[in-house]
Design brief:
Rossmann fold; 13 helices; 4-stranded parallel β-sheet; 46% helix; alpha/beta; 7-stranded mixed β-sheet
């Protein structure tokens, strides 16, 4: 017996219009799917949250799709929500209507996404929570990194760099540019960072939760803080490389001197180039390939009805957490380059060749 469609649960007055919307969205999903129109073994949907964070299109999607293709003949429906929770809801409904038998979901809003999980479960479709833990339970699996450790690594590097630099302004301190309030990982980063910062005695001048992880909003906020605090700003805890880029742009525009120590996360190419030039002190490298591949393996096992195992549980959900690594100019070659995440050629383009040579990378 075929599964009931979500449309049948909608109010009759909206069903016709919604059917058209879902049909169009389903067609868009199908157009994005690589390979043949159908997979003989079934259909998996991969729903990612945004394009502002470079990793998703550059690494997560291709690594996931490649591993699924290695495991069998499956159709992968792909969609990116462009940081729009409503759009992601629609994409999920469309994927279910198009026959997705497993959802791998990196939620834009981890609380709002509980409704996606409920709708999928009502149709007997398991949901793998990818990178961000969705609230409310009902998940088949969760794969991510130790996100509290990410914050610990960032804050530890920042504190150590401040200590190495020596005494600053008597009333100096740092800015905290935190992540999006709709991302459950942001709270974990913050918890880890606070644990280190509280013990260090470093003064926090001001902090900000960055809507949608927007680099532009981070830049705008940091510009305002520079106007208020000026050279009292000795460091910036930036929760990821996008917000770090916004912070660096604001600091450079204001010619803050000495230049504050800036953290980041995701090992984006632009961030590594800022590290080489000294504009950003560190990033956190998360080996995305094993994360994406584990999600693919779990999705395939769930679709086939095979058991899945996990080293731990979080909120009752079988979970795999991978280890993040702090990256500075001193270990860049031994981490992101050694793993093939980026090459020296990627990082040391002509504009960065002199800085790479000075840093011992070329």
């Amino acid at each position: 017996m075929p599964r009931p469609r979500l449309l049948r649960r909608r109010a009759p007055a909206r069903a016709g219009a919604l059917a058209i919307v879902l049909a169009l969205a389903a067609a868009a999903l199908a157009a994005c799917a690589p390979g043949p129109e159908t997979g003989t073994e079934g259909t998996i949907a991969l729903l990612l949250p945004d394009v502002k964070t470079a990793r998703y299109e550059t690494f997560d999607r291709p690594f996931f799709e490649e591993r699924v293709a290695e495991l069998g003949d499956f159709r992968v429906l792909y969609a990116n929500a462009d940081q729009d929770a409503e759009k992601q809801q629609q994409q999920a409904e469309s994927a279910l209507a198009a026959g997705a038998e497993v959802l791998v979901l990196d939620a834009v809003d981890t609380k709002a996404a509980a409704s996606i999980v409920a709708a999928a479960n009502a149709q007997g479709v398991p949901v793998v929570s990818y990178d961000r833990l969705i609230s409310g339970g009902g998940l088949a699996y969760y794969v991510s990194f130790d996100n509290e450790k990410v914050g610990v690594l960032q804050a530890t590097a920042l504190v150590e760099a401040l200590e190495a630099r020596g005494p600053g302004a008597p009333d100096g301190g740092i800015l905290m540019v935190n992540g999006s309030p709709t991302d459950s990982n942001s709270a974990k980063f913050h918890e880890g960072a606070d644990r280190v910062l509280d013990a260090s005695g470093v003064r926090i001048l001001a902090e900000y939760e960055t809507p949608d992880w927007s680099p532009d909003k981070a830049q705008e906020w940091v510009s305002g803080q520079v106007a208020q605090y000026g050279e009292r700003i000795e460091g910036v805890y930036a929760a990821n490389d996008g917000t770090a880029g916004g912070a660096v742009s604001a600091l450079k525009a204001a010619v803050v001197d000495p230049f504050p120590i800036v953290t980041g996360q995701d090992a984006e190419l632009a961030a590594l180039q800022r590290i080489v030039t000294g504009d950003q002190y560190m990033t956190v490298y998360k080996a995305i390939k094993p994360q994406a591949e584990r999600a693919a393996e779990v999705a395939v096992a769930l679709l086939r009805g095979e058991p899945v195992t996990a080293p731990l549980e979080i909120d009752g959900t079988p979970t795999t957490l991978l280890d993040p690594v702090a990256v500075t100019v001193d270990n860049l070659l031994d981490t992101v380059v050694a793993d093939g995440f980026w090459t020296v050629e990627d990082i040391c383009t002509p504009d960065y060749a002199a800085a790479c040579t000075a840093a011992g990378i070329l």
